[in-house]
């Protein structure tokens, strides 16, 4: 039975890959979206998948078997990915165990450092490594490692090192948080009272209890790492799997590549989950009340007052306030800059000093004439940051809000009204999306729409924005639906929800009066996480010259320019990253990386603030001090904690009551 389920979910995953691979045809027919052409091409691809003679890759005017041709670059990419994951996860576990031996104050500092490091984009990590290698070579003549390939040459150390950094940081932070939560449980106090050493408790009990949660978190980390692999291959000029996919965009090639990436991770994760799950004796599934009636009447003043109190509680939190203030200030300055300047982004072709002497040509370095310098087209970096901030922040916020809102609307019926066995099937199917690189899919779907030509764009500005918003939203909605649905299920399994049902509460009452107060903070956290993910996707798209609103590749019909964003949003500056670092023009991309890091850190502060407000509201247990620390604090200076008892400290249990009864008599 488990084998049938395993194969069934795998086939469902293949259907999803076929649907994604033919998605570019949605925009190739009549109108903005042609569902008829999409259905036709999807059915055609589904038939070709089961016909080996149609497994074709076009290479130098030759038709080769796509799976055989892609096998070697695929295996090269998987070696890099596998080694990076093993290195990153292994170091994360070792560092987490060593960190537990440190004092609490130092552990807090370590967690703060991890928050900062997690905000650094993978693209910047790659460039910093390359710059460090070049710097060491210039200073000492020592070439530490190769960081770029030529022809069929292959490198491993540099891409594995860069790719391992972010998984290591993410899992390191996750393990620390899971350990911290586990150490507050009662069994830890009981074990310490029995004389078991703190380190032994961590090694024997805590690690065993957090394995399952760590395993689930590793899937999300893997999802991000797959997109990072796509970027790393481009930065280091690696002829891996995704480089060949970019050379042949046909649906068959896309499907073959995604199937090859999907299969091993599906076998690993879903195989472990399905074949190791235990069938336990359970009560019948709880059925939610299928009656909707008018909810308890509350005046608009009462509702408004509740919302104002909730918002005020968040603004009283320092972390939330600082994070919100940073993002709001950047957004306000961007809007004001655009309004007060007729030409928000100034272009400098040549720069002369006061005496008319030529100082520089584009790209201009930072100077008193151009504070942060210009890009290759001569556009001021500072002006682009100020002008593009509003597009970057608002677009990321809107996409995050759409993902959260649509996920919530679908999560309510998923969590409350669908039978448990169907929930498990949906969850297994959606879980397969973690094994597909989001950045690769976004590039494949958006490149034909957002890339301009010498004669302009095929689609209007509004259509380009709507298509990009739709793609980046719909690709993640299934995951947010299951995520929010699982949060709702956890709440509905609590005892007070059972009490509300027994007392006759209908669905409206339970949802809005009992579930939503606990779900508000979760939705806020999900919004923040999706906001950060959208920013990272924009960075990846920018590297491949796919910009928000469209990519212009010509200034006019006679002058060819570097690709630039028509909205001057921040990822437009990212496009020249590789050339900028290699040519010594670091000033072009360093400011935009700093801007992205500041924005991500601000949103992380907002997320932490929401968590703290919710913990204070529901009364989460405060982290316990270690037993031996508490014992040391209770022990008077210079005295031994063990004291010899005296006879006066003991008495019969009923002696006082006996005396009272005699006096009464």
UniProtKB/TrEMBL annotation:
Residues 639-665 are annotated as: Disordered. Keywords: Membrane, Transmembrane, Transmembrane helix, Transport. GO terms for cellular component: plasma membrane. It holds the Pfam family BPD_transp_1. One of its GO terms (biological process) is transmembrane transport. It is found in: Cell membrane; Membrane. Its main location: membrane. It is a multi-pass membrane protein. Residues 389-607 form the ABC transmembrane type-1 domain. It comes from the Bacteria. The chain crosses the membrane at residues 7-27, 80-102, 114-136, 156-178, 220-237, 249-269, 320-340, 393-417, 429-450, 465-484, 531-555, 587-607. Belongs to the binding-protein-dependent transport system permease family. This is Peptide/nickel transport system permease protein. It comes from Sediminibacillus halophilus. The lineage of its organism: Bacteria, Bacillati, Bacillota, Bacilli, Bacillales.
């Amino acid at each position: 039975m488990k084998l049938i389920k395993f194969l069934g979910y795998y086939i469902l995953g293949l259907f999803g890959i076929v649907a994604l691979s033919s998605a570019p045809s949605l925009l190739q027919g009549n109108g903005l979206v042609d569902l008829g052409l999409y259905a036709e091409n999807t059915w055609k691809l589904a038939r070709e998948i089961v016909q080996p003679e149609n497994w074709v890759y076009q290479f130098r005017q030759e038709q080769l078997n796509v799976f055989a041709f892609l096998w070697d670059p695929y295996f090269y990419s998987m070696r890099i990915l596998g080694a990076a994951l093993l290195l990153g996860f292994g170091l994360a576990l070792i560092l987490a165990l060593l960190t537990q031996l440190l004092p609490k104050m130092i552990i807090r500092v370590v967690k703060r450092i991890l928050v900062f490091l997690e905000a650094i984009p993978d693209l910047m990590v790659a460039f910093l490594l390359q710059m460090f290698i070049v710097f060491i070579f210039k200073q000492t003549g020592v070439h530490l490692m190769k960081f770029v390939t030529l022809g069929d040459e292959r490198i491993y150390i540099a891409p594995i090192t860069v790719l391992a950094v972010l998984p290591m940081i993410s899992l390191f932070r996750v393990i620390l948080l899971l350990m911290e939560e586990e150490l507050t449980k009662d069994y830890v106090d009981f074990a310490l009272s029995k004389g078991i050493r703190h380190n032994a408790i961590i090694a024997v009990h805590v690690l065993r209890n957090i394995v399952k949660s760590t395993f689930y978190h590793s899937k999300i980390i893997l999802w991000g790492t797959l997109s990072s692999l796509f970027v790393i291959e481009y930065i280091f000029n690696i002829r891996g799997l995704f480089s060949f996919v970019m050379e042949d965009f046909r649906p068959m090639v896309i499907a073959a590549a995604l199937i090859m990436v999907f299969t091993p991770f599906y076998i690993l994760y879903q195989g472990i989950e399905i074949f190791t799950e235990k069938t336990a004796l359970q009560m019948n599934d709880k059925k939610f009340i299928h009656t909707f009636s008018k909810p308890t009447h509350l005046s608009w003043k009462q509702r408004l007052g509740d919302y104002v109190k909730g918002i005020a509680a968040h603004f009283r939190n320092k972390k939330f306030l600082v994070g919100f203030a940073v993002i709001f200030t950047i957004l306000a300055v961007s809007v004001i800059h655009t309004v007060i300047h007729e030409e928000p982004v100034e272009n400098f072709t040549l720069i002369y000093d006061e005496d008319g002497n030529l100082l520089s040509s584009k790209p201009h370095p930072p100077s008193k004439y151009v504070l942060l310098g210009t890009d290759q087209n001569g556009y001021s970096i500072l002006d682009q940051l100020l002008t593009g901030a509003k597009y970057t922040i608002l677009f990321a916020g809107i996409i995050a809000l759409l993902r959260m809102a649509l996920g919530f609307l679908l999560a309510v019926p998923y969590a409350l009204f669908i039978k448990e066995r169907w929930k498990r099937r949906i969850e297994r199917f959606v879980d397969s999306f973690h094994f597909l690189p989001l950045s690769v899919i976004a590039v494949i779907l958006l490149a034909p729409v957002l890339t301009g030509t010498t004669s302009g764009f095929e689609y209007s500005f509004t259509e380009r924005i709507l298509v990009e918003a739709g793609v980046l939203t719909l690709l993640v909605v299934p995951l947010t639906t299951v995520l929010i649905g699982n949060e709702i299920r956890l709440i509905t399994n609590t005892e007070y929800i059972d009490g509300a049902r027994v007392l006759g509460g209908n669905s409206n009452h339970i949802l809005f009066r009992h579930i939503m107060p606990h779900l508000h903070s979760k939705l806020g956290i999900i919004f923040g996480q999706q906001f950060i993910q959208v920013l990272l996707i924009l960075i990846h798209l920018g590297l491949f010259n796919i910009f928000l609103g469209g990519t212009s590749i010509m200034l006019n019909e006679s002058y060819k320019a570097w690709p630039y964003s028509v909205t001057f949003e921040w990822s437009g500056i990212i496009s020249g990253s590789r050339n900028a670092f290699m040519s010594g023009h670091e000033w072009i991309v360093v400011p935009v990386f700093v801007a992205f890091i500041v924005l991500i850190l601000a949103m992380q502060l907002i997320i932490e603030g929401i968590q703290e407000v919710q913990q204070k509201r529901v009364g989460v247990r405060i982290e316990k001090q270690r037993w031996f620390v508490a014992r040391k604090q209770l022990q008077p200076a210079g005295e031994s904690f063990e004291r010899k008892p005296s006879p006066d400290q003991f008495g019969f249990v009923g002696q006082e009551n006996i005396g009272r009864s005699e006096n009464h008599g």
